[in-house]
Amino acid sequence: MRLIKNIFITISVVILISQSVFCGSNSTYKFLRNDVSARAAALGGSFLTTTNDPNTIFYNPSALASINQRQVSIGYFNHLLDINSGHLSYSDRVEGFGFIGAGIIYTHYGDFEMRNELGYKEGNFSAGDFAVSAAYADQLIENVTYGASIKFIYSTIASYNSYGVATDFGVTYTAIPDRFHVAASLLNLGTQLKPYINTKEKLPLDLKIGASLKPEHLPLRINISFNKLLDYQNNFSSRFRSFTFGGEFTLTQNVQFRFGYNNENRKDLKIDKSAGLAGFSIGGGFLYEVYKIDYAFNSMGKIGGLHRITVGILL
């Protein structure tokens, strides 16, 4: 328990220091903060302490140390308007070395009309983002795993392009095996190597802390995560506005039901005085032989909703 106390003391100090150091939250490559897989989206993005899933590389690389066999995950979904995105991830355990992972995410924002200063059309242009990651994880001491990843980021808008590099770090503490986990991750620590024109922009640096609990004699795992803890806020308590919550019921050995809630999305998607079901999500998972099929629906209130499907393969 002393280790948990020390972890949270360290995180609290970082947050307090960042209150004065990080004077703004404007950044580029914001697609790096989007949920990636259907399982993560169904849980509202509360994914720090999830185990045995290759997509943890995008949330907390230390969780790769829970992989029990080689896996591949593929996902694609249509966002609102003409936006679409997808991912590909891989994880494996290398005997005598540790756990490795790799991942690719992309977002394409569709095609747009290009017009000159007089308003005349001069053709079309498109915009997109892309990132590729490689990660390593292993056990640090008993009940504690660590992980780190490095990623290359590329973005293009019409004839302009930009690229950068970043690293992610994570640590997971297993307080009670298979029942209670605590985790923290620092994501997108890096720099923009080439700006779109002349001015370099910051990356969306993100500190997350989270925990998961499986009540005894109940086939349910509850996750909670506090995100964007380094973003500037008017006061300290507002830093915890961006929290997510999720639950995963194991109905049978091969079937799971999931639900989630994203507090920031609910606040931001409120129209007039009503938010509807914005911020809430549901989904499920099904395992058939070596194939894992996950589905998620994320409500955006009056704006609509997002459907996602992810296919995993156990190799």
How do the strands of the widest beta sheet line up side by side? 1-2-3-4-5-6-7-8-9-10-11-12-13-14
Outline the low-pLDDT stretches. Answer: 1-24
**What percentage of residues falls in helices of 4 or more residues?**
under 10%
What gross morphology would you assign? Answer: globular
State the domain count: 1
Overall mean pLDDT: 86
**How many helix segments?**
3
Strand content: over 45%
Distance between the termini: 37 Å
Strand-pairing-aware structural class: mainly beta
Output the radius of gyration. 20 Å
Main pleated-sheet profile: 14 strands, antiparallel, barrel
Helix and strand pattern: HHEEEEEEEEEEEHEEE
Number of strands: 14
Briefly summarize what is shown:
The chain is mainly beta. It contains three helices and 14 strands.
Structural summary, described in words:
This protein has three helices and 14 strands. With 315 residues, it is mostly beta strands. It has one domain. A 14-stranded antiparallel barrel has the order 1-2-3-4-5-6-7-8-9-10-11-12-13-14. The longest helix has 20 residues, at 2-21. The chain is globular. The two termini are 37 Å apart.
